[in-house]
Amino acid sequence: MxxxxxxxxxxxxxxxxAERVYSSRLLGANPALVLHGGGNTSVKGVWKxxxxxxxxxxxxxxxxxxxxxxxxxxxxxxxxxxMLKLSRLETLSDMDMARELKLATLDPTSPAPxxxxxxxxxxxxxxxxxxxxxxxVTITNTASGEARIREIFGDDVIVLPFVMPGFDLAKLxxxxxxxxxxxxxxxxxxxxxxxxxxxxxxxxxxxxMIELVGRAEAYLAKNAALAxxxxxxxxxxxxxLPALRKNVSNAAGFPMLLRSHxxxxxxxxxxxxxxxxxxxRGPATPDHIIRTKRVAMLGRDVGAYAQAYRNYFEANSKLSxxxxxxxxPAPRVIIDPEFGLISAGRSARDAQIVEDIYLxxxxxxxxxxxxxxxxxxxxAELFNMEYWDxxxxxxxxxxxxxxxxxxxALVTGAASGxxxxxxxAFLNRGAAVxxxxxxxxxxxxxxxxxxxxxxxxxxxxxxxxxxILEQTIRRYGGLDMLVLNAGxxxxxxxxxxxxxxxWHKVMSINLDSNLAIMREAHPLxxxxxxxxxxxxxxxxxxxxxxxxxxxxxxxKAALTQLARVAALEWGNDSIRINLVHPNxxxxxxxxxxxxxxxxxxxxxxxxxxxxxxxxxxxxxxxKDVAELTAEMCGVxxxxxxxxxxxxxxxxxxxx
Length: 655
Ligand code: ZN
Hints:
Number of strands: 18
Distance between the termini: 71 Å
Shape: elongated
Number of domains: 3
Low-confidence stretches: none
Radius of gyration: 30 Å
Structural class: alpha/beta
CATH superfamily of the largest domain: Class II aldolase/adducin N-terminal domain
Largest sheet: 7 strands, mixed
Helix content: 40-55%
Bound molecules: zinc ion
């Protein structure tokens, strides 16, 4: 276990809270310790109140932050005496505890304190670090886990059996800690859950975590070393994934994204002779279950999974009296011998998090098997964790999903102008977006975010189109919305000067490639969980052509006719296709200030007059076109297909 502590770096962080931020981030930087918001840390200090008095205070990680990027403001100041007093109560319900923690905060603008706040307060050391280290949960999720932990750590750590995080865990710690702690105690192992370390300084507490986990790491290297999986030639038929996505979405009752991870390790796990047993035993650490749900689905029979999940829900919800409305029998982890690991999520981020968690879980399970068998918690305990009041309350707080949550949009010509604005409009509505352009800038439009995939490709190549759709399926599981925007507008050429070559080039890009995309995307759109939608970016030139644009106008007119025929043919597949006809959209890159001035002068207008030269005297922007395009994929247009909507500020030749 690598020790990332650097005295020079640490020296730049002056003060208890700054040191707390520094070492918390070191923990967060190691996915073998914590993943995606898991784990928590705290420091005990003082808070100066408005009367100038010092109050003994616990600064504990607030909910919703991630150790990897945590900041000082993410540590919630809570009154230490209130925490200790709460720990002396006989019982405290989760919801009462959540309210009391909030009441004990010294800054009303803070997020909710971690549910482990009372436990952190009880540990009599200034710095407390808590992780779900892979090596610890591997060993503790086995039948002889406790004996192995005692063998590895002796009396350097206190060992607690599994109890629900929150008040019960704090209560147990309040009893056990004073009874078992010795001057040698530097940590505490929670069975089936994780590990705590503590110390007087940030460095001491961090280094104890690294040391303790390092000992578990060395033990596993000796007793459960995992061999690298053999090379397995992938043989997946990706065209089957959109149908699986539709079934998963139907089970959930809303569209979901599927993300596939096909590697030697995921294929080997999916083909493991014991996979039907080892994949069904639960998560490596309880907080993962909120994301991954209890069992992974094997193969592609969503119906069988949903039925088994329903049975599990009914058997366990009797005790907790959960309403059936909370049942969501859709899997989040799918293990398939061809696809390897498929993760499902309402957003691309959720699917990515599930994948990250399960990639580590696979290895934890395999190594625990080598220690006599992976053994997670019982069904009832896992159910309580999965449907924990506090987690459910958090989900409710996150508000209703966005219009296109769980859906995928593909936009062509997305590097600039209308296409770029469309990509943004769909992202804003919660869709995952695949942006395609011949300009490689399309790849890095949004930096690193899971809900955007930029692909630079030449759409006149059929192979390229097939490749784009395969990438779309592998990353998001299918396609719901297609925006055909890519096109070229060559400079004015009268017919007598129009060469065949230019004519063919315009037709090939503006028309032929769109036919190929529509044809190849049709099976994906047909398998969309709700319904498929296509929006074609046409042109004012279709109803009102201008001289000098024969190839462009003819290509857009033919594209319009193609879309109208598609509307007729695809209605039975619940795919609707509509068109927008923009005109005079000047914020597109082709229109430099210089060209604009030239054109305006040509017509004897100012640039502003030229931009607003329409019936309403309104300037039309890329964003205006993009917003209309996105709305045409929304519920407002759910009963409309084959429509053509001009967006041009009103044009007397079109009206
Ligand atoms: Zn934990």
